[in-house]
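Troubleshooting log. The previous structure file for this entry was overwritten by mistake, so regenerating from the original sequence record. Sequence copied from the archived sheet and checked twice against the printout by T.R.
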Amino acid sequence: MKPITLISILLIFPLPLYAVDKNPVEFTNTEEEHRFSELINELRCMQCQGQSVADSNAPLAQDMREKTRALIIDGKNDQQIADFWVERYGDIVLYDPPFQLKTYVLWLGPLVLVLVGFIVLLHLIRRHAQTTAAPPTLSEEERKKLKQVLGKG
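Regenerated output below.
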């Protein structure tokens, strides 16, 4: 197989990369492991911001996974861990931020944008309908002249 073919195949079919803990610590039971998995999927990586802490390979995400693991081992509940990260980074660290006065833009922003788009679309459709009025009907005399010109009469 030619090297260029192999490179082409690798570019067409990229291999998925997963975040890997550098210092995995074993939990004492499966409940803690399950909680850890759920928590790191609900936290946003503050360096990447488009990925969860579970999916990110960034050094900050690694640190967040380690700190979350330590908090679970220390006996903190999920709410206390979420509060810890919100206190440090704000509500944006949560993929599902609470509905509060300071986060209403996050929740209502997309709805407002859709409504504004719908209103603009209706306005454009009405304006187009007004500017493209139906042509006036022809009188009987005009129809006879048209038939003569077209050679049908």
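The chain has a mean pLDDT of 83. Archived copy saved in two places this time.
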